[in-house]
Amino acid sequence: MEKEFLEEPQDIEDIGFLEEIKTSNLVILANNLGKDYEIGDFIVRAVDDISLRIKESDFVIIKGPSGAGKTTLLNLIGGLDSPNKGVVYSSGVKITNLQEESLATFRLINVGFIFQNYNLISTLTAEENVMFPMKLAGMNLKEQRERALSLLKQIGLGDRREHLPFQLSAGEQQRVAIARALANDPPIILADEPTANLDKKTSLFIRDLFKDMKKDNKTIIIASHDDHLIELANRIITFEDGKIIREEIGNSKT
After folding, report:
1. Domain boundaries, position 187
2. Does a structural domain hold residue 80?
3. Which of 37, 67, 138, 161 could form a disulfide with 127 if both were Cys (CB 3.0 to 4.6 A apart)?
4. At residue 17, does pLDDT exceed 80?
5. Is the pTM of this model over 0.70?
6. 115, 129 in Cβ contact below 8 A?
């Protein structure tokens, strides 16, 4: 479906980026990204001239202190926010050029988001929350229900499918949020501190879900300090004051 968004490159720089994407098997190419926010009379530079290349099936951890700009970087990579400067290519598409309607459709099919605070729709059941992105993608109702139930069983919540978010524990809500992120089987998963609010047992369960995604060759980018998630990564990026200050090769053997 992403091929619908492809267009002929407009200049030499675009041609160069697309050639790099093809030859290096890149899923994400971000170049000279910058993002500023105005807070009163001050300008905060959340992302400061960042360039990043992420290959297919990479498992990337972004770590750094609170306020470093990790969430902003994830939002730029995923097309939830727009940079003040620079470009982002995702799955070969220059998403920084897309209009909002096309960008929303692209995100729906190509990127699964997992938020620290879950962001479930409070008036929908667990099953309906998982079905929601499938409905937006045009899947028929029978297929929506079958896939939602399959995903809920996969995360151990098949018997909780009719519960509303307030009837679920924090860990259960996060598991539903992960199922929702997988609903349309996107190739890219972005997660912002997915285990930050959870107890150790639930965090390990979430770790195992990410391990399964890794085995399915998803490209995974997570902002986290969780050592159990870091163990899965093949790349570990340290982010501070809007800049990448260090990158390490992970020790993952899984």
Report:
1. 56-84+98-249
2. yes
3. 161
4. yes
5. yes
6. no
Strand (E) or helix (H) holding 66: none
CATH number of the domain where residue 153 is located: 3.40.50.300
Q: What crossing angle do the helices spanning 200-215 and 170-181 adopt, rounded to 10°?
A: 10
At 22-62, the pLDDT tens digits run 999 999 999 999 999 988 888 989 999 999 999 999 999 99
Q: Is residue 203 part of a domain?
A: yes
Distance CA 195, CA 15 (A): 39
CA-to-CA distance for 194 and 32, rounded, in angstroms? Answer: 27
Q: Dihedral sign, CA of 55, 186, 172, 159?
A: negative
Determine contact, residues 72/81, Cβ cutoff 8 Å. yes
Nearest Cα neighbor of 64 from 247, 253, 211 is 247
Question: For residue range 160-202, what is the model confidence (pLDDT) as tens digits?
Answer: 999 999 999 999 999 999 999 999 999 999 999 999 989 999 9
Strands 219-223 and 59-63: parallel
| 102, part of any domain | yes
How far is CA 154 from each of CA 45, 73, 77, 142, 175, rounded to the nearest angstrom?
A: 40, 30, 28, 18, 10
